[in-house]
Structures are given as C-alpha cells and as structure tokens.
Amino acid sequence: MKRWISCAFVALAASAGCGDSDGISLVPATGTVTMDGKPLEGATISFVPDPKNKPSTMGTDITGPGGEFKVKYRNRPGLSPGKYKVVVEAEQAKSKGKQLPDAIAKDPYMAKLAGISKDDEVSRYADVAKTPFEQEVSAKGESGLTFDLKSTVKK
Description:
- This protein has 155 residues and is an alpha+beta fold.
- The protein has a single domain (23-149), classed as Immunoglobulin-like (Sandwich).
- 23% of the residues lie in helices and 30% in strands.
- It has helices spanning 2-16, 91-94, 102-106, 108-114, 120-123; strands at 29-35, 38-39, 44-49, 59-62, 68-70, 72-73, 76-77, 82-89, 134-137, 142-149.
- β1 (29-35) and β2 (38-39) form a beta hairpin.
C-alpha cells in the first residue's frame, strides 16, 4: 500500500508541473533576423504586445548563428495570439561577434573605433516607437518570419 501511495504522489507531483503554469496558452513564433539580407547573430529580438492584447505576453530571444530565433514568454516557448511591435537590439551584433566591455560599447568614440556605431538607422529598430516592424500572431502561431534590418538609408 505504501508503494502505491508513493507512486501516486510522484505521478501527481510530476503532472503538477505540466501545462500552462500561469493559465496562458502560447503559440509558436519563430523566424530569422537579418541585416542587409545576411543572418544577424547575437541580436535581441522582442515582441512587444499591443495594449489591446488579452492576455498580454511579451516575448524575447537572442538570435543564433544563422539569425534564427524562437520567441519565449517567461522561459516558455511562444506568445499569446495578437498584435505586436517587434524591436531588434542589434548594436552588439553589429560588432561582428566581438564581445566588448560595456564602457567601450557605450562610448560613441570607442564604439566607432570598434566598429559598432549607434547610428540612427540601426538604433531605430531597438525603439518601440520607431521600429517599422509589426507582426500579428495568429491562433496557430507563426513560423518563417523574417525581419531584415537595413544598415543605411538609400537616398
């Protein structure tokens, strides 16, 4: 009898961790971030929810070697369906993979010498008010999304 109770307790404890811990159902959101058509590694991509989204889930990821991302909300894969602004923080990625101390990366002169300029064109993607990227996530999720950053403006 003790053995059965122990097994039942273990099964109950294991099942308690399954499913939606906060009651929010998520759908996948995956894709690629590029800069001027080339995969962008090490960029932080964030999906900022529209205030009308209910429930509201903000998701993020850091792009891999091929620029790929899989958005996560609270360490769970996916987002709730709805409208999002997409912001991409690419300054560190623009350093061509170099890991630089914050003091150098934040100093405009030193950053320029290291090849990581904070030009307005790239930094606009990191500002939720300026980013041109918007994405609607359907109830089935989204895969194959592509967000291409442009390093210069054609005049």
